[in-house]
Amino acid sequence: MSTITRSPARRGTNAVATLWALELRRDRLQLPVWILGNAAMAGLAVTGVTQSYGTETDRSTLLATAIANPVILTFRGLPSGAGTAEFIGFLILPFLVMIAGFMSSFLAVRHTRAEEESGRAELVGATTASRGAALWATTLHGVIANVITALAITVAFTLAGLPLRGSMVAGLATGAAGLVFLGIALVGAQLFATARGANSLGVIAILVTFLISGVGNAIGTPNADLTRMESSPLAWFSPFGWAENVRPFADDAVGPLVLLLIAAAVAVLLAYVLLRQRDVGASLVAPRRGRAAARWSLRGPVTLVGRLTRGSIIAWAVGAFLTGALATSLASVVQSMGGSNPAIAAVLEAMSKSGDLQAGTVVIFFTVVGILASCCTVQIVARARQEEARGTVEPLWAASVGRRRWLASYLIIGAVAIVAVDGAAVLGSLVGLSRTGADLIQDVWIGAAGQAAVAAVFLTVTALVLVVIPRWTIGIGWTIVVLATIIGLFGPLFGLPDRLTQLSPFSQTPTLTATGVDGRGIIGILAAAVVALVLSVWLVRRRPLVTAG
Asked: Considering the domain boundaries, does residue 180 fall inside one?
């Protein structure tokens, strides 16, 4: 009787395919949201630019203003001309790359380090699967996701009427940059012992390289008519800079695309080499040892949650401080820009709901502060879900803490985080006002109060999701923030209907008008927060422990 044996290579290939199919099934809801959302943002950008900047004069004026003000250019793309297609690439390409980067980074960590942290990777390792099967399956998963992203963006731009070649190049630049951040996150999964640490590295890499590219573009060399900018060498140290120097719809350069693919391949190979240097569940960066005895402040669940989340709260607060400083520092610049171009003024007024461009600038920047505060609260509630999935919540529930105190501790720290982030933004705004002398202090306080209410909605709604459908807490929490941001912040620019933009809490914040404070939308915001708070606290009483991820 003969037996059929498979070669190790064949077994490894089958294991990778099986694991990839499992990852695809787990991400069957999340990936379509990321990909279709990115493509929709590309298509809406074409509509918005066509409606808001219909003439070459409008586009040239905005480009000249951005090039003349490095702070503005830092947070935009690389100017490549005043044509409609080139202008769209300038406005939207960095944000398409950023979305692809977040998608790829979270995907990489979710299927590698998070699997080891939960113990499921050890079960896979007990089979005939090779040690690197999970890494290669995740790499395949990320490559396919970014290829589909590139195709979706190409289709969106083409259907909107842009040239096919430029649309393909824009899609390829976005997907190739996403692969770079996939590789960086895979390296982080080998370095750090927790998914939180690996995700933090991925997010920091995205934000830091975004700023490096922005600064590199801002200190570059403009052409004579201020419609095109040549990046400085600094921008070439960032995947964002490589993607932007592809210059879709203008140069359609292939060289930076090759550079992106090479960097992605090197990062993935480095992750594999590092994987071979450690044990399953271990990390190359050793976790810091805790104290032998807890400090006196760690005597309850509230202080414990505060200790676990203080690092992320500080990071979001620093970002809010810088945003607040920009809000008041750039107000006069935006005022002069809008005064020289009625089309730009109309867009800014639509985004801010204010007739005063300086006050409108504060409103727009404090919307960004609200987004930062909302992200901070979602991250805090997501931490509650991660602790539950690991099984560390069970001893608390079995002790005197109980379910309500456990949930309340995260809600209290979430509220503290909102105050910290908004307070940092106000402090930054005061620093900016001390330099410009503008009379915008009342607008600052109103903006801070309104965005605090918005962040409270996302805090309580995410807590409600944690109570009702805990397995979907992280996915739903981040999805509603992203959707609300796109609709509320970019809706007027994209020309979305007012009824749709009003669905976003960011569109309902109070503003200072000539007749007083328009706070009609704040009642609905506060009502939604209170309802979600009451339901979450009431329903958590009989909620079972759900440890599965």
From this structure: yes
Examine residue 210 and state whether it is found in any structural domain, yes or no: yes
Say if residue 260 is in the same domain as residue 304: no
Under DSSP, the state recorded for 5 is -
Q: Which two tokens stand for residue 225?
A: 């008519």
| Least confident window among 21-25, 54-58, 126-130, 305-309 | 126-130
Closest to 81 measured CA to CA, from 231, 226, 245 = 226
pLDDT of res. 1 = 44
| Euclidean distance between CA atoms 192 and 284, whole angstroms | 7
Question: Which residues, 6+ apart, have CB-to-CB distance to 390 below 8 Å?
Answer: 117, 118, 547
Q: Please give the tally of structural domains in the chain.
A: 2
Q: Is residue 240 part of a domain?
A: yes
Distance CA 73, CA 220 (A): 10
Q: For the ranges 40-44, 115-119, 268-272, 494-498, which has the lowest average pLDDT?
A: 494-498
Same domain assignment for residues 395 and 480:
yes
Do residue 122 and residue 234 come from a single domain? yes
Asked if residue 334 has pLDDT above 70, the reply is no
With beta carbons less than 8 A apart as the criterion, state whether 222 and 67 touch. Answer: yes
Question: What are the Cα distances from residue 141, in Å, to 31, 111, 135, 149, 273?
Answer: 10, 10, 10, 12, 19
Rg value, the chain, Cα: 24
Q: Please determine, for residue 343, whether its predicted confidence score (pLDDT) is greater than 70.
A: no
Place of tokens 């930062």: 372
pLDDT (tens digit per residue) in 156-166: 999 999 999 99
Q: Please give the Cα distance from 386 to 110 (Å, whole number).
A: 12
Instruction: Give CB contacts under 8 A, 24+ apart, made by 148-152.
Output: 148/35, 149/34, 149/35, 149/38, 149/39, 149/100, 149/103, 149/174, 149/175, 149/178, 150/174, 150/175, 150/176, 152/35, 152/36, 152/38, 152/39
Nearest to 240 by CA among 269, 216, 274: 216
- Please tell me the least confidently modeled range out of 305-314, 505-514, 540-549: 505-514
**Portion of the chain with pLDDT greater than 70, in percent:** 86
How distant, in Å, are the alpha carbons of 47, 447, 508, 510 from that of 353?
A: 20, 12, 10, 10
Of the pLDDT bands very low, low, confident and very high (cuts 50, 70, 90), residue 2 is: very low
Estimate the crossing angle of helix 133-159 against helix 8-26, to 10 degrees. Answer: 50
List of residues 6+ apart from 187 with CB closer than 8 A: 201, 267, 270, 271, 274
Q: What is the pLDDT of residue 458?
A: 95
Based on the fold, state whether residues 277 and 350 are members of the same structural domain.
no
Q: Could you tell me the sign of the dihedral formed by the alpha carbons of 334, 339, 341, 343, in that order?
A: positive
Asked if 131 and 112 count as a contact pair (C-beta separation under 8 A), the reply is no
First to last CA, the chain: 45
Domain of 269, in residue numbers: 23-284
Which letter does DSSP use for residue 366 in this model? H
Whether the pTM exceeds 0.90: the reply is: no
Helix axes 441-468, 520-539, angle to 10 degrees: 30
What's residue 272's pLDDT?
A: 94
- CA separation for the pair 80, 392 (Å, rounded): 53
